[in-house]
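TICKET: design request
STATUS: open
ATTACHED STRUCTURE:
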């Protein structure tokens, strides 16, 4: 019996749509890294699915064709902290069991290696607020990965259970730091 395109690609398409819907604005590179298929054939399949989802108007492509969007106007109110947090998540994808958008102050939450991680975006000028919000870890604190806009912010932050700090370049390169 022949399988339909939906039967062959349905699960992958649903997973890609879930990510685009949750994170609202993603690059093709981010999507490929969130769905790690090591070989070129897997990557080609994901790119074909993205084209198919855009044709079906279940996802949209920005005018400059750089971003896949959850809605035609998603770029207008893009959450830059969340967008950068997805690059950090992508670094851990080989170990990630589950990921989702987080509740404030977390931009993103994921489970990896039996641990809960929260990616916190400490935007420039919000260091005191974030230090205050994260000063009481509760009963069992998550592991906080604190995303900063500039490396100089790290010294200003007082977050007791921060596992590490990071910056993300405009190209998506993540640099990690530890406080001395």
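STATUS: resolved
RESOLUTION: sequence designed for all positions
ATTACHED SEQUENCE:
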């Amino acid at each position: 019996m022949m399988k339909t395109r939906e039967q062959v690609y349905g699960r992958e398409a649903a997973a890609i749509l879930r990510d685009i819907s949750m994170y609202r604005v993603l690059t093709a590179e981010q999507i490929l890294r969130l769905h790690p298929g090591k070989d070129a054939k897997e990557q080609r399949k994901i790119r074909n699915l993205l084209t198919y989802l855009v044709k079906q108007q279940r996802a949209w492509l920005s005018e400059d064709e750089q971003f896949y969007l959850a809605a035609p106007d998603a770029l207008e109110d893009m959450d830059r902290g969340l967008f950068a947090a997805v690059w950090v998540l992508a670094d851990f994808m080989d170990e990630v069991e589950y990921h989702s958008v987080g509740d404030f102050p977390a931009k993103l939450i994921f489970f990896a290696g039996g641990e809960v991680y929260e990616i916190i975006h400490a935007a420039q000028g919000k260091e005191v607020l974030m230090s205050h919000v994260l000063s009481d870890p509760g009963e069992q604190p998550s592991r906080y990965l604190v995303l900063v806009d500039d490396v100089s912010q790290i010294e200003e932050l007082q977050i007791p259970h921060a596992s590490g700090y990071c910056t993300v370049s405009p190209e998506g390169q993540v640099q990690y730091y530890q406080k001395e």
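CLOSING REMARK: DSSP finds five helices and nine strands in the chain. The first strand starts at residue 25 and ends at 27.
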